[in-house]
Amino acid sequence: MNVIIYEDEHYNNFLPLTWTHPVYGLRCGINTLAEKIARQYPKTKIQYSCRYYLPIEKLMKFERGLFINGRVLANKHLAKDIPLKGKDEVFVCGDEIVAIRAVSHDFKEVRKKAKTKKVKVRMIKYPWELIAELGSQVNEDKKALKGKGRGKKDKSVVIYNAKNVILDKGAVVEAGSVLDAREGPIYIGKGTIIKPLTYLKGPLSIGPMCRIGGEVGESIFHGYSNKQHYGFIGHSYIGEWVNLGAGTTNSDLKNNYSSVKVIVEGKLFDTGEKFVGCFIADHAKTGIGTLITTGATIGVGSNVFGGGVTPKQVPSFR
Fold it and tell me: For residue 199, what are the CA distances in angstroms to 233, 254, 278?
């Protein structure tokens, strides 16, 4: 039986990040949500289903198999709680569908008629939850990296809690940088270069082929993005092919220490979190001296310049 990782209607909660990625293509830790699910079902064919306009190998026709919601944050118990073998069944957690096993009927019919089973799983519902789970997920994902090539660091680099730092193949940390992994792990992806005199604070996950300078902490860089100069990025999710100009800095804490609000589907949503940075979608650019307000979202292909503080939401292609 195949596993089909699918995307439900809650991808809207993750916009603008999910304009160019299915929700299961977002990173949490080192790997994407889809990669975490697939890891729990080894030697099983994995298929994907998402919005028609995304360039993903999609399931063109709903067939039979084990359909797993792409927002599941998979752990080592997933395949036991939701096994491949069995009868038609719908797995739920609270009021959300976690998975559907379609054996004798197709997906849609099983969803309506099959018996349900309650399971305990973590479902990611909002983008700031990816940051909240970052530390534990880097620790979990690094187990799959054993035996892989390691990167290089200059002899002058200072590392606090070195056992909590992972340099993947081709990663380079240049002179005078400080990697502080005392409060969480730090992962630096393949081919990524950490520029001289950079300060990194864990938990932190930087994807492949990034260029990082200044101060970065408690954030996810999806990959292929540049923040080469001074400035601070914290508690944030940075997409692919993003370029942050010199001095670009985000706020991740309000002056009155109240919980941060983020615009979700056009309305201000209280995250309940004291520390929330920004969410920058693919191909966005910021000019020098850009100051990003707390809980801001910046859309796909946006060009933010002119200095000063950004609005709470920057639309795509602005």
Answer: 11, 22, 19
The DSSP bridge pattern shows strands 267-270 and 261-264 to be antiparallel
In the predicted model, what is the mean pLDDT of residues 97-115?
82
Structure tokens that stand for 134 in this block: 């970052």
Euclidean distance between CA atoms 51 and 244, whole angstroms = 29
Q: What percent of the chain is predicted at pLDDT more than 70?
A: 96
Count of beta carbons in the 10 Å neighbourhood of residue 198: 22
pLDDT value at residue 58: 58
Whether 301 contacts 284, CB under 8 Å: yes
Coil vs helix vs strand at 213: coil
Nearest to 162 by CA among 185, 130, 195, 139: 185
287, with CB counted inside 10 A (0-12, 13-18, 19+), is middle
The alpha carbon torsion through 226, 230, 235, 241 (nearest 10 deg) reads: -10
How far apart CA 201 and CA 256 sit, in angstroms, is 24
Enumerate domains of the chain plus CATH numbers.
Answer: 3-125 (3.90.550), 131-314 (2.160.10.10)
Q: How far apart are CA 120 and CA 143, in angstroms?
A: 23
Q: What would the mean pLDDT of 178-189 be, rounded to a whole number?
A: 98
Closest to 191 (Cα-Cα) out of 173, 204, 217, 214: 173
Q: Cα separation of 94 and 107, whole Å?
A: 20
State which H helix or E strand residue 39 sits in. Answer: helix 33-39
Tokens encoding 169: 């193949």
